[in-house]
Amino acid sequence: EYMDSNKYIEHLVTQLEEQRWNLWRQKLSVARLQREVAHSERQGAMREKLIHELEEERHLRLESEKRLREVTLESERSRAQMRGLQEQFSRMEETVRNLLQHQGSSGPNGEGTVSIMKVYQEKLSEDSRKCKEGMEKNHGAIDEDSRSESSSTEEEKEKTKLLLERLKALE
């Protein structure tokens, strides 16, 4: 009976040790699972943050695309207005040439032609001043838009420069 009690105690001690090991392994498993859950929660929070940032970026991209379309339309309008101004300058130059030819051939009636020329020159100066103001406004808008359209900027600046030179020559 004494031996049986010792064996029984050893058996209980062994079971106790096994229970301790099992408990320890379970605690490790619980700790590992808690770490995984915490990591998963952090990833979820990070995922939510990334989704939010993605939505913000998408919104900004859409706004940029909208602004680009607006700038492109404004640029096209400015180009059309620039072409109209070029045509108007060409007509003005032709009119001035015709008047100068007419003045040269008028001979004694030059005084009447001179007064016509003065009136026309005043009108031309007024028109050119208006055109110049319009071009400066458009040039300011084009300068703002030029950041997004750098390839056509040089061409537009060159056209504007040529038009301003022609305007000065006409004045």
TrEMBL record:
It comes from the Eukaryota. GO terms for biological process: microtubule bundle formation; microtubule depolymerization. Residues 125-161 are annotated as: Disordered. Keywords: Coiled coil. Residues 68-102 form a coiled coil. The keyword Coiled coil applies. One of its GO terms (cellular component) is microtubule plus-end. InterPro entries: Nckap5l. This is Nck-associated protein 5. The lineage of its organism: Eukaryota, Metazoa, Chordata, Craniata, Vertebrata.
